Amino acid sequence: MAEIKRIIFDTDIGEDPDDAVALAYMLEAERKGLCSLIGITTCSKTPYGAECAGAICRWYGKNDMPIGQLPLDAEVTPDNIDDIYPSAYGMAVAKKFGGGPSYFDAPGALETLVKLLRGSDGPVTIVATGKLTNIKTLIGDPEGYELVREKVSEIDIMGCDFAHQADPSLVPHPEYNIAGDVGAARFICERSPVPVVFSPFEMSEKELSGRVIVERYGEDHPTGLALIHLGCGGGRSSWDPSTALYAVEGERGVMRLSPWGTVSFRDDGVSDFTPGDGKCRYLIGTGDIAGAIDAMFE
Ligand SMILES: [Ca+2]
Questions:
Q1: Which residues pair with 39 in a beta bridge?
Q2: Are 151 and 123 contacting, i.e. CB atoms less than 8 angstroms apart?
Q3: Are 23 and 11 in contact (CB under 8 A)?
Q4: 5-295 has which fold?
Q5: How many angstroms is it from 16 CA to the middle of ligand 1?
Q6: What is the CA radius of gyration of the chain?
């Protein structure tokens, strides 16, 4: 039997509910013995990202999940924290469910990533579903680079949109995670010592997942609350959950991998794939991706 995958999840959880679906999916998969989620780092615009991630882990009985964060550029104080991005579901989830470190207690993302990789006795898959700042910082750190080279088997990223390459009549779309830190995306694709797989925007936009959580638990599940809070009770695009699905279960008959190649990034965040020598691939949908994600919750 193959060894189960160890996963580190780097996420901008608290804003778009697909991160919350992806995290719940991985925790369900862990319950079923399919993976081991060893830690989380956040790069959220809400100061409640780490606490929100901790709340979902706590719902699954994991009260001691290591969680680190990328601090916000803005100064956050106990007096202004609730005024920063108040519409984000991160605050609603953190206040209702609790768990995880507060903004003021969470350790830094790089420190957390290095500690997790140092302590891992087997290969780790990194799943990244936000802007790529934390992963760039890890690879740019001398010890971090060596740890990635030695211990990370693959970096799976929700990012890019290649639809304009398949259909040149389409206006190129700068995908959100790439546009959030174009320099980080470039750095990772040029410098990563391990393969990088992208789950591109166009693959999952129309694949709505998570409805099963809302139907079963409503607002009694933190991910259910996240979906309902954003008006996504019928499910949300599977951008981040498809990345988690691939990390845990592989293509699973609903996706396939592109050939190897390189990805280049324009200054506005538009991405272009060029097949050939390179360490990047991307996923292409071939079936019911949302159904495969929701099946984990059955
Ligand atoms: Ca995300």
A1: 8
A2: yes
A3: yes
A4: Inosine-uridine Nucleoside N-ribohydrolase; Chain A (3.90.245)
A5: 6
A6: 18
Q: CA geometry: angle at 92 spanning 90 and 98, to 5°?
A: 85
- 195, 281 Cβ separation under 8 angstroms: yes
Q: DSSP code of 279?
A: S
Cβ burial 40-78 (10 Å sphere, 16+ → b, else e): bbbbbbbbbbbbbbbbbbbbbebeebbbbbbebeeeeee
Q: How many residues would you count in the chain? A: 298
Ion ligand 1: residues, CB < 5 A:
12, 19, 129-130, 240
CA of 35 to the centre of ligand 1 (A): 20
Q: How far is the CA of 1 from the centre of ligand 1 (A)?
A: 32
Determine the distance separating the centroid of ligand 1 and the alpha carbon of 6, expressed in angstroms.
20
User: How are beta strands 208-209 and 236-237 bridged, if at all?
Assistant: antiparallel
d(CA 6, CA 122): 8
Coil, strand, or helix at residue 40? strand
Sequence ranges of the domains in the chain: 5-295
Whole-angstrom distance, CA of residue 276 vs CA of residue 269: 22
The model carries a pTM of 0.98
Q: What is the pLDDT along the chain (298 residues), one digit of tens a residue?
A: 567 899 999 999 999 999 999 999 999 999 999 999 999 999 999 999 999 999 999 999 999 999 999 999 999 999 999 999 999 999 999 999 998 899 999 999 999 999 999 999 989 999 999 999 999 999 999 999 999 999 999 999 999 999 999 999 999 999 999 999 999 999 999 999 999 999 999 999 999 999 999 999 999 999 999 999 999 999 999 999 999 999 999 999 999 999 999 999 999 999 999 999 999 999 999 999 999 999 999 8
